[in-house]
Design goal:
Elements lengths: L10 H22 L7 H26 L4 H7 L1 H34 L3 H11 L3 H18 L1 H6 L2 H8 L6
């Protein structure tokens, strides 16, 4: 009789690959940072930069999980990939919020202003920040609508339209 080999769980190598990518992002930040300053404001700004880089990486993973990659769906299964997408999306939202809060608070400490005044200053005076603020708000809207408690109270068509703004049904 032929012996049946147990199937290896598909998550382990993919999780290792994801952590390797996150380590590469941190390594690139470390190589590109000339010196880590000792003040609290500088530490907050550096932490905000790290969370921003990691948020961008994790958002790329979220998009890749829903890209319907045939090899991934065959090996893992679309139901499991959707669960990974939901969990990774939560991490992406948390990292994005941490990035915004840490950067704005660090900049406010550096400029010795309030957080609201610094937020207005950053959004209105820095290049491309209006677009970044709108994108962040849209990302938070999609995350809010995707939350189970909110999604259950909405019509399926409405939550789907917010989650997939391409207009294709």
């Amino acid at each position: 009789m032929r012996r049946i080999r147990p199937r290896r769980p598909p998550a382990a190598p993919l999780l290792g690959l994801a952590w390797t990518g996150a380590a590469a992002v941190l390594w690139l930040w470390w190589r590109g940072t000339p010196a880590v300053a000792a003040t609290t404001a500088d530490r907050l700004v550096n932490a905000g930069r790290i969370t921003g880089l990691l948020a961008g990486y994790v958002i790329a993973l979220v998009i890749a999980q829903m890209a319907r990659i045939p090899a991934l769906e065959r090996r893992v299964g679309s139901d499991r990939v959707v669960r990974w997408h939901a969990r990774t999306g939560r991490y992406a939202l948390c990292l994005t919020l941490a990035h915004v809060v840490l950067i704005l608070y660090g900049y406010a400490l550096q400029a010795d202003t309030g957080i609201v005044a610094q937020t207005v200053s950053v959004v209105t005076e820095y290049p491309r920040m209006v677009e970044a603020a709108v994108g962040t708000l849209l990302l938070l809207l999609v995350g809010f609508v995707s939350a189970g408690a909110v999604r259950r109270r909405m019509r399926y068509r409405d939550s789907f339209a917010v989650h997939r703004p391409s207009g294709r049904w």
